[in-house]
Structures are given as structure tokens and as C-alpha cells.
Amino acid sequence: MKTRNKSNQKIQTSAVALLNLVFFFSTAEKVEAQNNAGIIGIDHVGINVPDLNQGITFFSEVLGFKPITQLGPIPLDAGWKEANHINPATGAVTIKMINAGTGASIEVFSYADNKGSKVHPNSDDIGASHIAFYTADISESVKYLKSKGVKILGEPFLTPSGDTAGESWVYFETPWGSKMELVSYPNGKGYEKNNPSAILWSPKEIEKKGTDKPNSNMISESEIKSLVELHLAIWNEKDLKKRSNLMKKVYAENIQMVDTHFTAIGYQEINKFVEDLQKKSLNSKFSPVKAIDVNQNTARLYWQNGPAEKPNAVTGMDLFVFENGKAVKLYVFVDIKK
Asked: Which CATH number belongs to the domain containing residue 139 in this structure?
């Protein structure tokens, strides 16, 4: 029994040491949930409009967005209508997908001979929603919309304190009465100053870089794989100058390395973590254990870490999100060995 206790203590001590080496911790449940769902982000938001041409004209000629694809008219059978709570007498649906700049697309759809409700939900009604558009200069955007005859609901409000301090916003109405929003926070929001564990995605980062190309954030599969390979080189590189130069090639300046216990943001914080990691295990090395998986602008890397005599002392998985040719998010899941 004593021998077993000593063995258990040794295993526990080794486990603690190994956990100090890794840069992400995650419960098995969390890993399983994320792997099963496979959700990466928002593809589009949909809005039902009374007149498809009116909707497309507003989004394209007033807001400057670009219609891309069309589906329909599609006749809907009785089963579909019943399952989706559509009036049995409503006609075919036509769908237009609109590129709305940086971010999710907008799906505008309209039903022929629509027998559904013609009354917009009030703001406090269940199911009421709106689409918010980011602008670098809310005053200029309001002025522009007014010049196009768009109804602005009040004046821009600047949040003075709290998590959204520094954010200005104002609502406006479309010609068919749907509520939309303009929002702006060129200097960030209040919560960002408190070193939060996660940062909300924002189109302002893309706007700041001066790109207006809808697909400028997409890079090829081979390019992504090359960047992921350099990522491993970063974590193995012991020379600070060389490592920093590699980081600038692979990571965005404000990259977020997300852990269940902390979030490291930017080159400096990640560099410090790498240095501490290397000091605790001078002879350990990261290496891949599977081929790199790429799906659109995301990649998955299974890795191992350890000395030459036990290269798989720690194993795990990195998940990357790429924008504009560099990794902007890095999630790492470590296999907790029992």
C-alpha cells in the first residue's frame, strides 16, 4: 500500500509539473461539446421584408452593400409550413444574400402573397430583433442617412461608464419599418481596459487596417498550413529576437490566446508565457502528431510536447482562426491524462 501511495504521489507530482508546461487547459466535456457542435461563427442574419426589391434597394443603394446570390421563388409544401409555423396560404419564398462588408452576410427574404402578420414586433415583444452596423464616425453616418431620407430614432448616445463606456449608438428605421442600429467605439469599450478573459469580435479592427475587400481575410489552405507549422517553430524557438520575428509573420498584433484560466493578448504576453514555459522544461519540444486540418479560415493542429525520451509527455490540440493572413485567435485544448 505504501508503495502504491508513493507511486501515486509521484504520478500526481509529475502531472502538476506537466500541467505547468501547457498553455491551455480544458475539461473533457468542453472539448467534446466544441468538437461536436463544430460552430465557428455567424454566417448570416436573416430578415423578412414585405417587398424584396425595396429591401435590396435599401441595402444596396442606401447602405452600399452588394447583393450576391438569389434562391427562388421556392414553393413551400404543407409539411414545411407546418414545421416552420408559416400560414398555410402563404406563397413561395425568394431569398437574396447580401454581402454586408466585414462580418456576417444579410439574408433578405420575402414571401409571395404573405398571409403572416404585417405588424412589426415592438422592442419589448418576444422575438423582436435588430441588426447593428459598425461605423468609425457615427455623426457622419447619421448625417448621410438623414440625407437619404432615413428616419433616425433620436440622437447618438455615448455610454459614459460601465462595460460599454466609449460606445456611441443610435437606432434608425428601414423604409418598411424594421429597426436597425449604428454603433461606434473607435477607442474601444470600457471592459477592454480590465484585461478581460475574452474580447468581443469587432469589425473596427478590419476597418482600422483599411481593407474593404469582402474576402480579404481568406487565405489558401497551403498558406494556412505553412503558418501553423511556423506556429510550432515559435514555441520551440529559444532566441527572443527570432521568436518575435516569427510571431509577426504568423500572429496578428492583437492575437488572443484563450485559456480556461487566462487570456494572453499580443506578442508581449505570449512571449512571456513561452519564455516561462521553456524555463520550466529546457529539453521539451513541440511536434505535430497528425496532419493539419484546415476548414475555410480555421485550422486544427494536434501536437505533443516533451523531451526526446518521452516526446508525448503532454498532448493536445490547437484551434486557429485566421483573418487577413494571420492568426487572430488561438485556442488550445490539452489532453488531461488520468
From this structure: 3.30.720.110
The number of domains in the chain is 3
| Whole-number Cα distances in Å, 223 to 133, 229, 235, 246, 286 | 31, 10, 19, 15, 20
pLDDT digits (tens, 9 = 90+) for 220-246: 888 899 999 999 999 999 999 999 999
Q: What is the pLDDT of residues 284-315, one digit of tens each?
A: 999 999 889 888 888 999 999 899 899 888 88
d(CA 19, CA 185): 39
Question: Are residues 198 and 235 part of one domain?
Answer: no
- Whether 137 and 98 map to the same domain: the answer is no
The residue out of 178, 211, 244 marking a domain boundary is 211
Q: Residue 210 region, left (φ>0) first, then alpha (ψ -120 to 50), else beta?
A: left
β-bridge pairing 179-184 and 293-295: unpaired
Cβ neighbours for 110, distance < 8 A, ≥ 6 positions apart: 48, 49, 50, 51, 52, 55, 93, 94
**How many residues would you count in the chain?**
338
* Residue after which a domain boundary falls, among 151, 179, 211: 211
- Domain with 90 in it: 40-118
Total Cβ atoms within 10 A of residue 254: 11
DSSP letter for 106, please: E
d(CA 12, CA 124): 54
What's the pLDDT band for 136 if we cut at 50, 70, 90?
confident
- Flag whether pLDDT at 216 surpasses 60: no
In-domain check, residue 4: no
> pTM (2 decimals)?
0.54
Do 112 and 123 reside in the same domain of the chain?
Answer: no
Contact 66, 33 (CB under 8 A): no
Provide the terminal-to-terminal Cα distance of the chain, rounded to the nearest Å.
Answer: 20
pLDDT 10s digits, 14-61: 443 344 433 333 444 554 554 566 777 888 999 999 999 999 999 998
Running DSSP on this structure, what letter comes out for residue 15?
H
